[in-house]
Amino acid sequence: MKHHTSEGLFRIDCDEIFLQEFSVEDAINIYRISNQPEIYNFLPDWKSTKEQRVDWVTNYEIPANKMFLEAATKNTNIESHFLKLGVFIKETNEFIGWCCTGIKEELPTPNREIMYAISNEYQRKGYATKASRGLNDYLFTNTNVENLNAVALINNISSNKVIEKCGFTYRGQQIIENEHYNHYILSKSEWKKKH
Question: 0.85 exceeded by the pTM?
């Protein structure tokens, strides 16, 4: 796993996939994937119209990514910044999902989380696990993050498996917006033991 910029965009290499900061061109794919039932049933906040998604990517997500990356580069203190990365198949450069990190207000501090989504036609191929591990490795190696959280609806069996495969420890259930979630934490010290 290494990270670099390509054509001015931040990228994390994860074997046959890579993570790359969102670009305006990604908005249509984010829109398409976020409107798949397999995604919006578990991530309803990501559902949007095309126009909303273009606006969000252009005016909020790209600037937020730049602020995160600037903070990470300057002093590793990413504070409450968000980083949203697309997941791409390396061989074809196809956008197949996203893997992100940010503050999850509903969790007790420290409440930085990672989250992910993979398009329905690419699920069950290990891409969510590879993407999540790549982002975890980047965060623990290049930023001041000491703990990462992950949550998954208790009935989202696939997502719970991904989180466990990434080395997170189950901490109990959380109720967020009247829904029951499994809550997991991965500490930097536990991550180091596995690397």
Answer: yes
